Amino acid sequence: MVYRGKPSTACEPCRIRRLKCDRVRPFCTQCRNTSRVCAYRNTLDLLFQHENNTVIQKYASKENTPEPKFSTKPQWPVDCGQSLSSNSQFLTHAPEKSAINFFLLAYVEGMYLDYVPALYRAGSCPLSLVATLEAVALACLANEKCQPGLLSLARRKYGIALRATNEALQSVATAITDETLASVMLLAYFGAVSSDPSEARDSWSKHVNGALAIAALRPRELGQSAAGQALLDHVVSSVQVECISQRKAAPALLTTLYENFPGLTSAQSHFRALIERVLVLQTAIKKRSKTTNSLETVLELRSLDETALKLMGHMSLSHPHAAISFEKKKGDPNNRLRYYSSPSHRITQSWNSMRMLRMYINHTIYSLATQSLDSQATIPFQATILQAQMDEAAQAAVEMAMGICGSVPEFLQPTHLSGMDDSGGDGHTAWAHSLIWPLSSAVASPLLPEDLRQQLHSQQRCLETATNLRCIRQSASSSSFCTAIKEW
Protein backbone atom coordinates (compact mmCIF):
# COMPACT_ATOMS: atom_id res chain seq x y z
CA MET A 1 0.00 0.00 0.00
CA VAL A 2 1.17 3.52 -0.79
CA TYR A 3 -0.08 6.54 1.19
CA ARG A 4 -0.56 9.49 -1.16
CA GLY A 5 -1.35 12.20 1.36
CA LYS A 6 -4.55 14.13 1.90
CA PRO A 7 -6.25 14.53 -1.50
CA SER A 8 -8.26 17.49 -2.70
CA THR A 9 -12.01 16.95 -2.63
CA ALA A 10 -12.60 19.50 -5.41
CA CYS A 11 -13.93 18.38 -8.78
CA GLU A 12 -11.51 17.68 -11.62
CA PRO A 13 -12.15 20.81 -13.80
CA CYS A 14 -11.65 23.12 -10.78
CA ARG A 15 -8.44 21.32 -9.79
CA ILE A 16 -7.03 21.61 -13.30
CA ARG A 17 -7.84 25.32 -13.54
CA ARG A 18 -6.87 25.95 -9.89
CA LEU A 19 -10.28 27.41 -9.10
CA LYS A 20 -12.01 27.40 -5.72
CA CYS A 21 -14.60 24.63 -5.85
CA ASP A 22 -17.67 24.89 -3.61
CA ARG A 23 -17.99 21.06 -3.74
CA VAL A 24 -21.74 21.13 -4.37
CA ARG A 25 -22.95 17.75 -5.61
CA PRO A 26 -23.65 16.42 -8.13
CA PHE A 27 -22.32 19.51 -10.00
CA CYS A 28 -20.38 22.37 -8.45
CA THR A 29 -21.42 25.96 -9.14
CA GLN A 30 -18.32 26.74 -11.24
CA CYS A 31 -18.94 23.84 -13.63
CA ARG A 32 -22.69 24.41 -13.78
CA ASN A 33 -22.23 28.08 -14.75
CA THR A 34 -19.70 27.24 -17.50
CA SER A 35 -21.36 24.02 -18.76
CA ARG A 36 -18.31 21.89 -17.94
CA VAL A 37 -18.37 18.17 -17.19
CA CYS A 38 -18.18 18.11 -13.38
CA ALA A 39 -17.32 14.97 -11.45
CA TYR A 40 -15.66 14.04 -8.18
CA ARG A 41 -13.07 11.33 -7.74
CA ASN A 42 -13.20 8.38 -5.37
CA THR A 43 -11.32 9.43 -2.22
CA LEU A 44 -10.49 5.85 -1.19
CA ASP A 45 -8.83 5.17 -4.51
CA LEU A 46 -6.66 8.26 -4.05
CA LEU A 47 -5.65 7.49 -0.47
CA PHE A 48 -4.50 3.93 -1.14
CA GLN A 49 -3.48 2.21 -4.33
CA HIS A 50 -2.12 -1.33 -4.50
CA GLU A 51 0.86 -1.66 -6.83
CA ASN A 52 0.21 -5.31 -7.76
CA ASN A 53 -1.19 -5.60 -11.33
CA THR A 54 -3.03 -8.82 -10.49
CA VAL A 55 -4.93 -7.13 -7.67
CA ILE A 56 -5.74 -4.13 -9.86
CA GLN A 57 -7.18 -6.36 -12.60
CA LYS A 58 -9.15 -8.40 -10.06
CA TYR A 59 -10.61 -5.23 -8.54
CA ALA A 60 -11.51 -3.82 -11.97
CA SER A 61 -13.29 -7.03 -12.99
CA LYS A 62 -15.56 -6.86 -9.93
CA GLU A 63 -16.49 -3.19 -10.29
CA ASN A 64 -18.94 -3.51 -13.18
CA THR A 65 -21.78 -1.26 -12.01
CA PRO A 66 -21.63 2.41 -13.11
CA GLU A 67 -22.88 5.20 -10.90
CA PRO A 68 -26.64 5.71 -11.38
CA LYS A 69 -26.28 9.49 -11.81
CA PHE A 70 -24.25 9.20 -14.98
CA SER A 71 -25.64 6.01 -16.53
CA THR A 72 -27.00 6.52 -20.03
CA LYS A 73 -27.87 4.20 -22.86
CA PRO A 74 -25.43 3.99 -25.79
CA GLN A 75 -26.52 6.03 -28.79
CA TRP A 76 -24.86 3.96 -31.53
CA PRO A 77 -25.00 0.37 -32.84
CA VAL A 78 -23.29 -2.31 -30.77
CA ASP A 79 -21.11 -3.51 -33.63
CA CYS A 80 -19.34 -0.14 -34.00
CA GLY A 81 -17.37 -0.52 -30.80
CA GLN A 82 -17.29 -2.03 -27.37
CA SER A 83 -20.36 -1.65 -25.18
CA LEU A 84 -20.46 1.19 -22.68
CA SER A 85 -22.75 -0.58 -20.26
CA SER A 86 -19.86 -0.67 -17.79
CA ASN A 87 -17.75 2.42 -17.19
CA SER A 88 -14.87 0.43 -15.71
CA GLN A 89 -14.84 -2.06 -18.56
CA PHE A 90 -14.92 0.74 -21.11
CA LEU A 91 -12.01 2.59 -19.49
CA THR A 92 -10.01 -0.65 -19.27
CA HIS A 93 -10.40 -1.79 -22.86
CA ALA A 94 -9.08 0.75 -25.43
CA PRO A 95 -11.58 3.62 -25.07
CA GLU A 96 -9.93 5.47 -27.97
CA LYS A 97 -11.22 3.05 -30.59
CA SER A 98 -14.76 3.02 -29.24
CA ALA A 99 -14.74 6.82 -28.96
CA ILE A 100 -13.56 7.22 -32.56
CA ASN A 101 -16.24 4.84 -33.84
CA PHE A 102 -18.84 6.79 -31.90
CA PHE A 103 -17.52 10.13 -33.20
CA LEU A 104 -17.51 8.99 -36.83
CA LEU A 105 -21.11 7.80 -36.53
CA ALA A 106 -22.57 10.60 -34.44
CA TYR A 107 -20.65 13.74 -35.41
CA VAL A 108 -19.09 13.50 -38.86
CA GLU A 109 -22.21 13.81 -40.99
CA GLY A 110 -23.79 16.54 -38.92
CA MET A 111 -20.72 18.79 -38.75
CA TYR A 112 -19.29 18.88 -42.30
CA LEU A 113 -16.42 16.55 -41.38
CA ASP A 114 -16.88 14.20 -44.34
CA TYR A 115 -13.16 14.25 -45.02
CA VAL A 116 -12.27 12.61 -41.70
CA PRO A 117 -13.22 8.97 -42.53
CA ALA A 118 -11.36 9.16 -45.84
CA LEU A 119 -8.18 10.42 -44.18
CA TYR A 120 -8.36 8.17 -41.13
CA ARG A 121 -6.87 4.83 -42.12
CA ALA A 122 -5.50 2.45 -39.52
CA GLY A 123 -1.78 1.93 -40.03
CA SER A 124 -1.24 4.65 -42.64
CA CYS A 125 -2.60 7.70 -40.82
CA PRO A 126 0.06 10.04 -39.30
CA LEU A 127 0.29 10.47 -35.55
CA SER A 128 -0.91 14.09 -35.72
CA LEU A 129 -4.32 13.12 -37.11
CA VAL A 130 -4.66 9.94 -35.04
CA ALA A 131 -3.95 11.73 -31.74
CA THR A 132 -6.16 14.70 -32.67
CA LEU A 133 -9.06 12.47 -33.65
CA GLU A 134 -8.68 10.48 -30.44
CA ALA A 135 -8.67 13.67 -28.35
CA VAL A 136 -11.76 15.11 -30.03
CA ALA A 137 -13.65 11.81 -29.97
CA LEU A 138 -12.89 11.22 -26.29
CA ALA A 139 -13.91 14.79 -25.39
CA CYS A 140 -17.23 14.45 -27.23
CA LEU A 141 -17.92 11.11 -25.61
CA ALA A 142 -16.97 12.44 -22.16
CA ASN A 143 -19.44 15.31 -22.55
CA GLU A 144 -22.28 13.07 -23.68
CA LYS A 145 -21.64 10.32 -21.12
CA CYS A 146 -20.48 12.54 -18.23
CA GLN A 147 -17.32 10.50 -17.70
CA PRO A 148 -14.49 12.64 -16.27
CA GLY A 149 -12.00 9.84 -16.78
CA LEU A 150 -12.49 10.13 -20.53
CA LEU A 151 -12.10 13.91 -20.38
CA SER A 152 -8.76 13.56 -18.58
CA LEU A 153 -7.62 11.07 -21.18
CA ALA A 154 -8.81 13.42 -23.94
CA ARG A 155 -6.68 16.26 -22.55
CA ARG A 156 -3.61 14.02 -22.47
CA LYS A 157 -4.26 13.03 -26.07
CA TYR A 158 -4.68 16.73 -26.91
CA GLY A 159 -1.16 17.42 -25.64
CA ILE A 160 0.20 14.61 -27.81
CA ALA A 161 -1.79 15.92 -30.79
CA LEU A 162 -0.43 19.45 -30.36
CA ARG A 163 3.16 18.23 -30.30
CA ALA A 164 2.66 15.96 -33.30
CA THR A 165 0.90 18.68 -35.30
CA ASN A 166 3.61 21.23 -34.50
CA GLU A 167 6.24 18.75 -35.68
CA ALA A 168 4.32 18.23 -38.92
CA LEU A 169 4.19 22.00 -39.45
CA GLN A 170 7.99 22.27 -39.28
CA SER A 171 8.33 20.75 -42.75
CA VAL A 172 6.65 22.20 -45.84
CA ALA A 173 6.13 18.71 -47.25
CA THR A 174 4.05 17.58 -44.26
CA ALA A 175 2.51 20.96 -43.41
CA ILE A 176 0.46 21.18 -46.61
CA THR A 177 -0.96 17.65 -46.50
CA ASP A 178 -4.64 16.89 -46.04
CA GLU A 179 -3.91 15.11 -42.76
CA THR A 180 -2.16 18.13 -41.20
CA LEU A 181 -4.90 20.54 -42.27
CA ALA A 182 -7.54 18.16 -40.93
CA SER A 183 -5.65 17.96 -37.62
CA VAL A 184 -5.72 21.74 -37.23
CA MET A 185 -9.47 21.92 -37.94
CA LEU A 186 -10.14 19.14 -35.43
CA LEU A 187 -7.96 20.89 -32.83
CA ALA A 188 -10.23 23.91 -33.23
CA TYR A 189 -13.22 21.73 -32.50
CA PHE A 190 -11.56 20.22 -29.43
CA GLY A 191 -11.35 23.63 -27.77
CA ALA A 192 -15.04 24.22 -28.45
CA VAL A 193 -16.18 21.03 -26.70
CA SER A 194 -13.71 20.85 -23.80
CA SER A 195 -13.12 24.46 -22.67
CA ASP A 196 -15.22 27.17 -21.07
CA PRO A 197 -16.84 29.65 -23.51
CA SER A 198 -14.17 32.38 -23.29
CA GLU A 199 -11.30 29.93 -23.85
CA ALA A 200 -13.24 28.16 -26.60
CA ARG A 201 -13.60 31.37 -28.61
CA ASP A 202 -9.88 32.10 -28.58
CA SER A 203 -8.88 28.51 -29.30
CA TRP A 204 -11.34 28.18 -32.16
CA SER A 205 -10.27 31.49 -33.75
CA LYS A 206 -6.54 30.73 -33.55
CA HIS A 207 -6.85 27.30 -35.09
CA VAL A 208 -9.21 28.44 -37.86
CA ASN A 209 -6.88 31.29 -38.84
CA GLY A 210 -3.96 28.86 -38.75
CA ALA A 211 -5.85 26.47 -41.00
CA LEU A 212 -6.46 29.31 -43.47
CA ALA A 213 -2.72 30.08 -43.59
CA ILE A 214 -1.95 26.42 -44.28
CA ALA A 215 -4.66 26.12 -46.93
CA ALA A 216 -3.32 29.17 -48.79
CA LEU A 217 0.09 27.43 -49.13
CA ARG A 218 -1.30 24.23 -50.63
CA PRO A 219 -0.74 23.51 -54.33
CA ARG A 220 -3.80 23.35 -56.56
CA GLU A 221 -3.61 19.59 -57.12
CA LEU A 222 -4.31 18.94 -53.42
CA GLY A 223 -7.77 20.42 -53.86
CA GLN A 224 -8.80 17.98 -56.58
CA SER A 225 -9.67 15.01 -54.36
CA ALA A 226 -12.99 14.71 -52.58
CA ALA A 227 -11.33 14.94 -49.17
CA GLY A 228 -9.23 17.94 -50.23
CA GLN A 229 -12.27 19.76 -51.59
CA ALA A 230 -14.28 19.06 -48.43
CA LEU A 231 -11.39 20.32 -46.29
CA LEU A 232 -11.17 23.60 -48.19
CA ASP A 233 -14.94 24.08 -48.01
CA HIS A 234 -14.79 23.57 -44.24
CA VAL A 235 -11.92 26.05 -43.86
CA VAL A 236 -13.66 28.72 -45.95
CA SER A 237 -16.99 28.39 -44.16
CA SER A 238 -15.25 28.49 -40.76
CA VAL A 239 -13.32 31.64 -41.69
CA GLN A 240 -16.52 33.33 -42.85
CA VAL A 241 -18.24 32.43 -39.58
CA GLU A 242 -15.24 33.83 -37.71
CA CYS A 243 -15.42 37.10 -39.66
CA ILE A 244 -19.17 37.50 -39.15
CA SER A 245 -19.02 36.77 -35.42
CA GLN A 246 -16.05 39.12 -34.91
CA ARG A 247 -17.53 41.77 -37.25
CA LYS A 248 -14.38 42.07 -39.33
CA ALA A 249 -13.53 42.04 -43.03
CA ALA A 250 -12.51 38.89 -44.85
CA PRO A 251 -8.72 38.35 -44.59
CA ALA A 252 -6.50 38.74 -47.63
CA LEU A 253 -5.53 35.07 -47.38
CA LEU A 254 -9.11 34.14 -48.25
CA THR A 255 -8.74 35.96 -51.57
CA THR A 256 -5.47 34.10 -52.14
CA LEU A 257 -7.26 30.83 -51.47
CA TYR A 258 -9.94 31.68 -54.03
CA GLU A 259 -7.23 32.44 -56.60
CA ASN A 260 -5.37 29.19 -55.95
CA PHE A 261 -8.51 27.05 -56.00
CA PRO A 262 -11.06 28.31 -58.58
CA GLY A 263 -13.38 25.45 -57.66
CA LEU A 264 -14.17 27.18 -54.38
CA THR A 265 -15.86 30.06 -56.17
CA SER A 266 -17.87 27.84 -58.51
CA ALA A 267 -19.50 25.81 -55.73
CA GLN A 268 -22.18 27.81 -53.93
CA SER A 269 -20.69 30.93 -55.52
CA HIS A 270 -23.78 33.10 -55.08
CA PHE A 271 -24.11 32.29 -51.39
CA ARG A 272 -20.43 32.97 -50.70
CA ALA A 273 -20.50 36.20 -52.70
CA LEU A 274 -23.44 37.31 -50.58
CA ILE A 275 -21.49 36.58 -47.40
CA GLU A 276 -18.51 38.55 -48.72
CA ARG A 277 -20.77 41.57 -49.29
CA VAL A 278 -22.13 41.23 -45.76
CA LEU A 279 -18.57 41.18 -44.39
CA VAL A 280 -17.68 44.38 -46.26
CA LEU A 281 -20.78 46.15 -44.97
CA GLN A 282 -20.36 45.05 -41.36
CA THR A 283 -16.75 46.31 -41.40
CA ALA A 284 -18.02 49.72 -42.52
CA ILE A 285 -20.70 49.62 -39.82
CA LYS A 286 -18.11 48.87 -37.16
CA LYS A 287 -16.10 51.98 -38.10
CA ARG A 288 -19.02 54.39 -38.24
CA SER A 289 -20.18 56.62 -35.40
CA LYS A 290 -23.34 55.70 -33.51
CA THR A 291 -24.74 59.18 -34.16
CA THR A 292 -24.28 58.89 -37.95
CA ASN A 293 -27.43 58.60 -40.03
CA SER A 294 -27.65 54.94 -41.05
CA LEU A 295 -30.41 55.10 -43.67
CA GLU A 296 -28.03 54.44 -46.58
CA THR A 297 -26.48 51.44 -44.84
CA VAL A 298 -29.91 50.09 -43.91
CA LEU A 299 -31.03 50.27 -47.54
CA GLU A 300 -27.85 48.47 -48.67
CA LEU A 301 -28.55 45.72 -46.18
CA ARG A 302 -32.14 45.52 -47.40
CA SER A 303 -30.79 45.01 -50.92
CA LEU A 304 -28.66 42.13 -49.65
CA ASP A 305 -31.69 40.60 -47.95
CA GLU A 306 -33.67 40.80 -51.18
CA THR A 307 -30.81 39.04 -52.97
CA ALA A 308 -30.85 36.32 -50.32
CA LEU A 309 -34.61 35.98 -50.74
CA LYS A 310 -34.15 35.43 -54.49
CA LEU A 311 -31.50 32.79 -53.81
CA MET A 312 -33.94 30.99 -51.55
CA GLY A 313 -36.41 30.99 -54.44
CA HIS A 314 -33.84 29.26 -56.66
CA MET A 315 -33.05 26.79 -53.86
CA SER A 316 -36.55 25.37 -54.18
CA LEU A 317 -35.32 23.69 -57.38
CA SER A 318 -31.77 22.71 -56.36
CA HIS A 319 -32.59 21.83 -52.73
CA PRO A 320 -36.20 20.60 -52.77
CA HIS A 321 -38.13 20.14 -49.55
CA ALA A 322 -41.86 19.85 -48.97
CA ALA A 323 -43.99 21.72 -46.46
CA ILE A 324 -46.24 19.61 -44.23
CA SER A 325 -49.77 20.96 -43.93
CA PHE A 326 -51.08 22.06 -40.56
CA GLU A 327 -53.83 19.40 -40.65
CA LYS A 328 -51.21 16.69 -40.13
CA LYS A 329 -50.01 18.43 -36.98
CA LYS A 330 -53.27 18.95 -35.10
CA GLY A 331 -51.63 18.46 -31.72
CA ASP A 332 -49.16 21.27 -32.25
CA PRO A 333 -49.95 24.27 -30.01
CA ASN A 334 -48.42 26.76 -32.44
CA ASN A 335 -50.72 26.77 -35.46
CA ARG A 336 -48.55 29.29 -37.29
CA LEU A 337 -45.66 26.87 -37.61
CA ARG A 338 -44.96 25.04 -40.87
CA TYR A 339 -42.98 21.81 -40.84
CA TYR A 340 -40.67 20.81 -43.68
CA SER A 341 -39.90 17.35 -44.98
CA SER A 342 -36.46 16.92 -46.55
CA PRO A 343 -34.75 13.79 -47.94
CA SER A 344 -31.39 14.72 -46.38
CA HIS A 345 -30.04 16.72 -43.47
CA ARG A 346 -27.59 18.30 -45.95
CA ILE A 347 -30.51 19.96 -47.74
CA THR A 348 -31.87 21.17 -44.42
CA GLN A 349 -28.42 22.55 -43.51
CA SER A 350 -28.31 24.57 -46.74
CA TRP A 351 -31.75 26.04 -46.08
CA ASN A 352 -30.92 26.85 -42.47
CA SER A 353 -27.63 28.49 -43.50
CA MET A 354 -29.58 30.88 -45.70
CA ARG A 355 -32.17 31.43 -42.96
CA MET A 356 -29.46 32.26 -40.42
CA LEU A 357 -27.82 34.68 -42.85
CA ARG A 358 -31.14 36.46 -43.46
CA MET A 359 -31.77 36.61 -39.71
CA TYR A 360 -28.36 38.18 -39.23
CA ILE A 361 -28.96 40.77 -41.97
CA ASN A 362 -32.38 41.73 -40.63
CA HIS A 363 -31.12 41.80 -37.05
CA THR A 364 -28.44 44.28 -38.18
CA ILE A 365 -31.05 46.37 -40.03
CA TYR A 366 -33.23 46.51 -36.92
CA SER A 367 -30.30 47.46 -34.69
CA LEU A 368 -29.02 50.22 -37.00
CA ALA A 369 -32.48 51.69 -37.51
CA THR A 370 -33.12 51.70 -33.77
CA GLN A 371 -29.81 53.47 -33.06
CA SER A 372 -30.51 56.07 -35.73
CA LEU A 373 -34.00 56.82 -34.42
CA ASP A 374 -32.77 57.04 -30.83
CA SER A 375 -30.02 59.49 -31.79
CA GLN A 376 -32.63 61.92 -33.21
CA ALA A 377 -30.27 62.65 -36.11
CA THR A 378 -32.88 61.85 -38.76
CA ILE A 379 -35.42 64.07 -40.44
CA PRO A 380 -39.12 63.02 -40.38
CA PHE A 381 -39.33 61.29 -43.78
CA GLN A 382 -36.15 59.30 -43.00
CA ALA A 383 -37.60 58.28 -39.66
CA THR A 384 -40.67 56.92 -41.46
CA ILE A 385 -38.49 54.84 -43.78
CA LEU A 386 -36.39 53.54 -40.90
CA GLN A 387 -39.48 52.53 -38.94
CA ALA A 388 -40.81 50.65 -41.96
CA GLN A 389 -37.46 48.88 -42.31
CA MET A 390 -37.56 47.90 -38.64
CA ASP A 391 -41.02 46.38 -39.05
CA GLU A 392 -39.96 44.49 -42.17
CA ALA A 393 -36.79 43.25 -40.44
CA ALA A 394 -38.73 41.95 -37.45
CA GLN A 395 -41.21 40.16 -39.72
CA ALA A 396 -38.41 38.57 -41.79
CA ALA A 397 -36.58 37.41 -38.66
CA VAL A 398 -39.74 35.75 -37.37
CA GLU A 399 -40.32 34.00 -40.71
CA MET A 400 -36.75 32.67 -40.77
CA ALA A 401 -36.97 31.51 -37.16
CA MET A 402 -40.22 29.69 -37.97
CA GLY A 403 -38.46 27.98 -40.87
CA ILE A 404 -35.61 26.87 -38.61
CA CYS A 405 -38.07 25.63 -36.00
CA GLY A 406 -39.99 23.71 -38.65
CA SER A 407 -36.84 22.09 -40.02
CA VAL A 408 -36.65 19.65 -37.09
CA PRO A 409 -37.76 16.39 -38.77
CA GLU A 410 -40.73 14.40 -37.57
CA PHE A 411 -38.62 11.50 -36.25
CA LEU A 412 -36.94 13.89 -33.76
CA GLN A 413 -40.26 14.99 -32.31
CA PRO A 414 -41.10 13.76 -28.76
CA THR A 415 -43.72 11.22 -29.88
CA HIS A 416 -41.14 9.46 -32.06
CA LEU A 417 -38.12 9.78 -29.77
CA SER A 418 -39.80 7.68 -27.11
CA GLY A 419 -39.81 4.71 -29.46
CA MET A 420 -36.28 5.04 -30.77
CA ASP A 421 -33.85 2.21 -30.17
CA ASP A 422 -30.43 2.58 -28.62
CA SER A 423 -28.77 3.38 -31.93
CA GLY A 424 -30.91 6.45 -32.40
CA GLY A 425 -31.87 5.37 -35.90
CA ASP A 426 -29.92 5.75 -39.13
CA GLY A 427 -28.85 9.36 -39.49
CA HIS A 428 -30.87 10.59 -36.51
CA THR A 429 -27.82 11.82 -34.62
CA ALA A 430 -26.43 13.59 -37.69
CA TRP A 431 -29.77 15.35 -38.16
CA ALA A 432 -29.81 16.42 -34.52
CA HIS A 433 -26.26 17.77 -34.48
CA SER A 434 -26.82 19.70 -37.72
CA LEU A 435 -29.71 21.57 -36.06
CA ILE A 436 -27.91 22.69 -32.89
CA TRP A 437 -26.43 25.90 -34.27
CA PRO A 438 -29.53 27.06 -36.23
CA LEU A 439 -31.83 26.57 -33.24
CA SER A 440 -29.38 28.24 -30.84
CA SER A 441 -29.02 31.23 -33.17
CA ALA A 442 -32.77 31.57 -33.62
CA VAL A 443 -33.51 31.41 -29.89
CA ALA A 444 -30.90 34.13 -29.23
CA SER A 445 -32.60 36.60 -31.59
CA PRO A 446 -34.33 39.46 -29.70
CA LEU A 447 -36.93 39.97 -32.44
CA LEU A 448 -39.05 36.88 -31.78
CA PRO A 449 -42.43 36.75 -30.00
CA GLU A 450 -42.54 34.72 -26.82
CA ASP A 451 -44.72 31.92 -28.20
CA LEU A 452 -42.26 31.23 -31.03
CA ARG A 453 -39.34 31.36 -28.61
CA GLN A 454 -41.06 28.74 -26.45
CA GLN A 455 -41.58 26.56 -29.51
CA LEU A 456 -37.86 26.82 -30.32
CA HIS A 457 -37.03 25.85 -26.74
CA SER A 458 -39.30 22.83 -27.16
CA GLN A 459 -37.39 21.78 -30.28
CA GLN A 460 -34.13 22.18 -28.39
CA ARG A 461 -35.39 19.80 -25.75
CA CYS A 462 -36.04 17.31 -28.55
CA LEU A 463 -32.40 17.62 -29.59
CA GLU A 464 -31.30 17.09 -26.00
CA THR A 465 -33.22 13.83 -25.98
CA ALA A 466 -31.85 12.74 -29.35
CA THR A 467 -28.19 13.62 -28.76
CA ASN A 468 -27.93 13.37 -24.96
CA LEU A 469 -26.32 16.84 -24.96
CA ARG A 470 -27.18 18.78 -21.81
CA CYS A 471 -25.77 22.18 -22.76
CA ILE A 472 -27.91 23.08 -25.81
CA ARG A 473 -30.30 25.44 -24.02
CA GLN A 474 -27.52 26.84 -21.82
CA SER A 475 -25.55 27.68 -24.95
CA ALA A 476 -28.45 29.54 -26.48
CA SER A 477 -29.42 31.41 -23.34
CA SER A 478 -25.85 32.56 -22.63
CA SER A 479 -25.02 33.65 -26.19
CA SER A 480 -25.83 36.77 -28.10
CA PHE A 481 -27.38 36.31 -31.54
CA CYS A 482 -24.18 37.20 -33.43
CA THR A 483 -21.86 34.95 -31.39
CA ALA A 484 -23.96 31.80 -30.94
CA ILE A 485 -21.46 29.71 -32.93
CA LYS A 486 -18.68 30.55 -30.48
CA GLU A 487 -20.36 28.44 -27.81
CA TRP A 488 -19.92 25.42 -30.09
Automatic annotation (TrEMBL):
User: Which residues belong to any copy of the Zn(2)-C6 fungal-type domain?
Assistant: 10-40
Record keyword Transmembrane present: no
Q: Which UniProt keywords apply?
A: DNA-binding, Nucleus, Transcription, Transcription regulation
Spell out the SUPFAM superfamilies in the cross-references.
Answer: Zn2/Cys6 DNA-binding domain
Q: Which PROSITE patterns match?
A: ZN2_CY6_FUNGAL_1, ZN2_CY6_FUNGAL_2
Secretion signal, residue range per the UniProt entry = none
Question: Pfam families from the xrefs?
Answer: Zn_clus
Report a single Gene Ontology molecular function: DNA-binding transcription factor activity, RNA polymerase II-specific
- InterPro entries, A to Z: DHMBA_Reg_Transcription_Factor, Zn2-C6_fun-type_DNA-bd_sf, Zn2Cys6_DnaBD
Q: Which domain of life is it from?
A: Eukaryota
> What is the protein named?
Zn(2)-C6 fungal-type domain-containing protein
Give the originating organism: Elaphomyces granulatus
